[in-house]
Amino acid sequence: MTWSPTLAETARKIASSCIYGHDTSVDGGGYGQNIGAGFLSTAMGQFITEGLYNSEVNNYVYYGGEPNLNTLSQWGHFSQIVWKSSITVGCYTSDCSATGLSNAPGIPPYFTVCNYGPAGNVIGGFGANVGPSIGLATVDASYGCPSRANCV
Length: 152
Fold this sequence. Notes:
One of its GO terms (cellular component) is extracellular region. By secondary structure, the protein is of the alpha+beta class.
């Protein structure tokens, strides 16, 4: 996985709208997307590791085949992160304090968008793109640091 300035710029455009919701039409689309609200950019590692990966990895039980898409909300962030064919990523967190964050009442006004290229979670591609664990323990967002506040 490599950083894509182009996908990051598209993520910036989407996050800067301060309208919480997926939008994969900006700049021509063709990318996958994970979004989150309420996290400062300094907490992006924690958001991705804990909020998107660790909270969903055990919900995905369809290795080698096609999943039940009715349960996508339980594992879709995880599967996009590990999607083998997605080789680039670009993220951006926007501070929406001035305008507020639409569609996310009561949540701190920070909108994070991560775009992945090419898109994951493609019907017919799960067996080839979401492999089973290699058996190592997952990491937490502290990455072994004694204080998450100082390490994220």
